[in-house]
Amino acid sequence: MQVKSFRLVTVFCEAILESLVITELDELGIVSYTVSDCRGRGTRGVRSGAWSLSSNIRIEVMCDEEVSERLASALTQKYDKDYGLLIVASNVDILN
Amino acid sequence: MVLDPIVLFFLLGVIAGIVKSDLKMPSALYEALSIFLLLAIGLKGGVELSKYNILELLPSSLVVILVGVIIPLIAFPILKFVGKLNHFDSASIAAHYGSVSVVTYSVALAALAERGMTHEGYIVIYLVLLEMPAIIVGVALARMAPNSSKKAAGWGKLMHEVFSGKSILLLTGGLVIGWIAGEKGFAPIEPMFGGLFKGALALFLLEMGLVAASRVAAFRSYGIFLVVFAMVMPLISAAIGIFTGLMLSLSPGGIALLATLYASASYIAAPAAMRIAVPKANPSLSIGASLGVTFPFNLFVGIPLYFAIVERFS
Q1: What contacts B248, CB < 8 A, 6 or more positions away?
Q2: Which of B96, B118, B310, B313 is most buried per CB count within 10 Å?
Q3: Global pTM?
Q4: In this structure, which CATH number among 1.10.1040.10, 1.20.1530.20, 3.50.50.60, 3.40.50.12280 belongs to the domain B5-10+27-144+152-313?
């Protein structure tokens, strides 16, 4: 079986940014993504998820190293200053 | 003064929040209730509207919108020069106070029914029309800042956010459906959207109480100016509303409703639009003021006061 290796980029951000982040993915040619609702606590306080403006989302995409860096720098440049945003990446292998 | 039971539901929610109860409304229920309320208000307004000639409402609608533009223009200098808030926060809060709250309007409707007062059914059109102008004024004010960033989301994105937002969509959709259905067509669905309205509103207010309690805690650190503003601004807007209602020669019930509309501050449509359009504004300030102070103020003091004033003069 051939194993394919990718960078898994996970973006944690305010739910209101969803469509803006997805526009960014489109521009970089990233076709697949997974979005899930989440809640928790960070440097900007508790995000309870009780209503839309205190909700967070987690957007996960897989891409190569170069695209992941372009994505991170585009998002950081546009949204990091004024919105709750955290971008992490790890190496993953696709097994099927 | 006897408090309307639905207002007591709000109080219960606040208490649950303060004592850190494990009470939490499922967010799906909150969503469902808000969809129900918006549709119910739209439908009932549409049925009423079918009794009027829409073209005749055009001049009064323009007056109502114009006043809706003036209110944020009054709020902005107060916030910026008296309150010494920064330019972006001032613009964002001004937009919240110029825009309207559907739930506050619903409570005023319930108060009308309680007092056996009637009103012009078409006032619901004003509710729909008043949501947007102040948001546009707020964004325009924010963009006038000397160091405003050019990267901010464009007007197109903002207009899409506002017009496709569920509140405008469901209110307008309900209006059109109610208008087409008329009294006769509405009768079969009346038990759902008419009879259950107040009970659903009570449940929604319970949730609003919970959210408001969580906002007040965060709001404490922002100083006395904003708390005072959040109680004085509705009074200024209500006075303007009463004057506008008299000018348009509305019935006493209609004047009280219009005053409540102007006095209310948005905490659903405006926050979402401002978060996208004016990212530099601190959302805790505007939501804290509109939801944590102005909404309960209107519920407990404002609405009874506006009704008392109107009753005295008529």
Answers
A1: B60, B63, B64, B258
A2: B96
A3: 0.86
A4: 1.20.1530.20
